[in-house]
Structure formats: structure tokens, C-alpha cells
Amino acid sequence: MKQYKYEEIAANIESKITGGQYLPGHRLPSVRTLKQQYRTSLSTIQSAYDELLLKGLVESAPRSGYYVSARPAAAGKVATTPIVRDPVFRSNLAVITSQNLQRSAISEFNVAAPGDLLLPQQLLLKTMQQVIREKGAALLKYYPANGSATLRESITKRAAHHNTRFQADELLITDGALQAVYIALAAVCEPGDVIAIESPCIFSVLEVIRVLRLRVVEIPVRPFTGFDVDALKEACAIHAFKAIVITPNFHNPTGVLLTDEQKQQLLRVAQTNNIPLIENDIYGELPFNGERPSTIRTFDNSGLVMTCSSFSKSLAPGIRLGWLSAGRFYRQAEQVRFAIGSSVSPVYQETMNKILEGSAYEKHLRIFRKQLAAQCTQSIKLIRECFPAGTEASRPEGGYHLWVRLPETLAMSSFYRFCEKAGVRFTPGSAFSFTDAYDHCFRLVYADKYTPAKVAAIRKAGGYAVANS
Question: Measuring CA to CA, which residue among 259, 461, 317, 289 is closest to residue 374?
Fold first, then answer.
């Protein structure tokens, strides 16, 4: 199997570490030195070091460089050999998803929803009131199980603007994107089937997988290059996957955006192996700069791609309205949709349809994207200033998640206990995998405005990490 240049460089450095040429604590060649040695780009060298960081072979010291890990036994946490895992969490995920809904923390960075100050409250409430006046008692009746025909047409027209084409009659309106993912998986999988998922993977999707009693192979998402398509190819040669689940645009939790070339490579793997590909495009509307990115569905003419999305992340979490374009699996998906209950609230459907008919939604997105970009920049700055040497943070290009890896010398259970007492909440990295690969990571959500209290909370958490690393 062909290696990427960064993999070749990483393998060369790894062989010198495992062979004893580079000993624990040894300072490694700088990025610029390796750039000249291998005659390649800085980003390629950076990706090689990112690979070694993920394996635990290398540690980073800000403004100093990279060093061989003092604890090489921690190497290899992210498996490159595809291993089938049963969906069993090492800790009770309900603590994150249900009990923790008591919003008592002073500063919450674990809720993946826009804060009150960023919500277009006036737009939503005014439109909802207008819909109620116009539709009246008609809103009290059942709507079609697959959703309002006019809303499906509006979503179809909007998708066409970024070259994602499908027919309105292949859409299912759902109660959010997570329900759409559930329907898609249930339509093509049975209990015990093996699927490929990204790693790290949002815990809500992992919970769906557990409920459906599926088995998984976790495919790494690299910090700069994203979903490892070559690792997927290797896994496909071993396992008969029934589905692939991927977030190509502003992945949760890393924020990575796949290029069009990567999306097409991923699609080719799915088509070659005849595997349904479920893409969660819930953050696609939220790039910081430039045009809205394409979807994998943009390049698909086989019907294998099932695209899920919603308006909960781009408008408001209380607008429980998502959709699924089920491709060639529409009939199976329609049966699942019918089996799990009635249609989405008519009020939400009519409100969303009216918003999409005008220019208000696009105007809101322009403002929201700028706000998120500023919040992201401030988050990265605070992590860099307040957390210990060796802390790594992602560089999102959109969405609202920052993925942070702390030094392995820090006891994470003690860190989270301190944060809880201090009223600060992050989402533990352990919630994003069925393995222990991300125990020293956490996700920070920056979808709410920073207040002096929030800034102080970040500084407090960072101070504890510095003192105890």
C-alpha cells in the first residue's frame, strides 16, 4: 500500500526511536531542518510529527521543538491495525448525556450548541408567530411522515447552491441530525454488523451505535490531514463493512475539513466495496472563511451516499428539525422513520420553510460565522497562554469545536475533578472512542461569547494543569 510522504518521514523517525538512535528526552530535528532534508513542505513535516504525537512517541515543547517522549511505553495508542470492537463504554456515558444536563456550571465549554447571545432570537420568534397566525389550527394536525413537501423542496434548492443535488422526494424530515444518522444506520445494518467510524467520534453517534448493537472499526482522524482514507482501505481488505460514518466538514471534535480530493477518494473506496456511506454534514454551513464546502454527495452518482444534516447547530438547538437524503436506501429509511414515530412538529417545519424562503437565514449565517471565527481565535490564544508546555490544540476552519491534548504527565481524573469544583466543564476525550486513545484530550466548545468569568475559568483550569503536569 502506497505511503504518504508524511507517513514515510514519521516511520523513519519512529525506527530511530525504537532502534535506540534517539533516546527518551532527545531533541528531534526541527521542522525546517527536516523540510530541507526531505525537500518537502512544512505542512508535510508537521503532519509527520503529528502522527508521532498521536502514537505517544514524541512530545512537543512550545518555542523549543519536539522531543522523544520520556514515556515511550505510551506509544501506539491509536491503532493502525483495524480492530473490531464491541460498542462498550468504559464509563457511564449517561453522566455526560443526561445527568449532566443540570446547567449549574459557571462556565460550560461542553455544550455543542450556540449560546443565547449568538441565537437569532428575534428572527425565530417573529417568524414562528407569523406562521401561527397564518396557519392556525392546521398546525395541530399530523404532517406527512416524511415531512412537508414545500420544506423538502426548499432544502433541495438550498443544497443545489453548493452543488449537492438530490430530489425532494428522497428526503426525510427528521427530529435533528442524530435521528437522521440513526435512521440511516438502521436502514442498512443489523445487530452484529461491522461498520467503520471516524476516531475520535462524537459520543452521541457512538451511543446510537451501541443502541443498534453494531460493531466498529475506528479509523483515525489525523490532526491536519483528516480522515485516514488509506487506513480505511486497509480495513476494507479485512472486514465486510455494512456502513461508513463520517463528518467531512468541520469534524466534531477536531474541526478538520476534508478537501474535495479526500472526499472523492473516500467515495471511491465506498463505491469499490459497495458500502453505504453516511455523511453527517451538520456543520457544513459554518466555514470561517470562503465558500460553503462541498459534501461527499456532491460527487456521488451511485446513490451510496446518505447525507444527514439539521438546523440545530446553525440556528438554534430548540429547532428540532433535521433531514436525511437516503439515496438508493430511501425505502428502507422511510420504513424506519415511520416506525419510530410521527412527523416533526408542524410549527418547526413551517417556521424553517418561511426562513429559507427569504434572505434572513443567509444574513444570519454571515454574522454567525464571523462570531465563531473570533471565538475560535480567542480559545486557541487562551489555551496557548494558560496551559502547560506540550499542550496541543487543533486549528479548526469552521464549526465550533477545539480539540485539546494535554501532557501525559497530567492526571486527568484529578484535572476534571478540579474543573468540576471550579465550575468549568469540558467534554472528556474518553467519551469520543471505545478505546483509551484520547484519555488526555478534551473538547472545548466556543459557540458562546466569552465573558470575564469564562476567561477566568479557562485560566483557572490551565493554571491547575501547569501546576500538576
Answer: 289
